[in-house]
């Protein structure tokens, strides 16, 4: 029954992009309501190294609990030089990725943009520091002047948007010439070719692209016990299945779809022409 409902939901999202955006926002707010711990600052599936290098990059002890989620960011950020740059994260969520990018990659300024006012308030209350701030806004209508940033990061967020094309147009607008767009997210396998076409058609130059599905599956495997425990301890029983599905635990439909190849997780390093 759960599988049928998930597939119906996917169809509705495909037919009605506005439904996808609204439903994801509602789920997002629900997670914020039930999972109130200040240490809960990430919402992604994570990224595990396949070569056995579990301790790279080197992190402070206090950040180790979020290693897998941060590595999803770091596998992008490590590809370019961000130190002393002005950086935007679109879809900053609970702020963990932006906070650790600021800490370890040392951009001069980092702005997190998110459509959830509650998440933005949480981030500014708990994570804001010099050179790091969070604002509320829409990825498809960004509140920034043309050429505002040297780099834009977008991690596991774009699948919620109404129009990827509108989002990419905004990316091109607010990036400076020669600036980089660092992107990673999942799609149905049959949609990957269209995603690649949209990115190329936007005017961005693709420098590197990867299928990181094996890295994501490994991260979900390694983090399954922690995710299940957190959900069981904090979410009311009537909502357990929905939250486990959202989190991608091993019993979820989304996990099985990664395993059987119906879903792929990809990443792109791109650049706006100088």
Chart the SSEs and their pairings.
Layout: H1 2-15, H2 17-34, H3 67-77, E1 86-90, H4 96-105, E2 109-114, H5 117-126, E3 132-136, E4 149-155, H6 164-174, E5 175-188, H7 192-201, E6 205-211, H8 213-234, H9 240-247, H10 253-260, E7 263-271
Helix pairs in contact: 1-2, 3-4, 8-9
Q: How many beta-strand elements?
A: 7
Work out the radius of gyration: 18 Å
Low-confidence stretches: none
CATH architecture: 3-Layer(aba) Sandwich
CATH C-level category: Alpha Beta
- CATH fold category name: Rossmann fold
Largest sheet data: 7 strands, mixed
Helix content: 40-55%
Structural class, judged by helices and strands? alpha/beta
| Number of spatially distinct domains | 1
Kindly, what is the distance between the CA atoms of the first and last residues, rounded to a whole number of angstroms? 52 Å
The amount of beta strand, in percent, is 15-25%
Q: CATH superfamily, called what? A: Vaccinia Virus protein VP39
- Helices and strands, in order, run as HHHEHEHEEHEHEHHHE
- What is the averaged pLDDT score? 89
Query: In order across it, which strands form the biggest sheet?
Result: 3-2-1-4-5-7-6
Shape, per Cα inertia axes: globular
Number of helices: 10
Question: Short description, anyone?
Answer:
This protein has helices at residues 2-15, 17-34, 67-77, 96-105, 117-126, 164-174, 192-201, 213-234, 240-247, 253-260, and strands at 86-90, 109-114, 132-136, 149-155, 175-188, 205-211, 263-271.
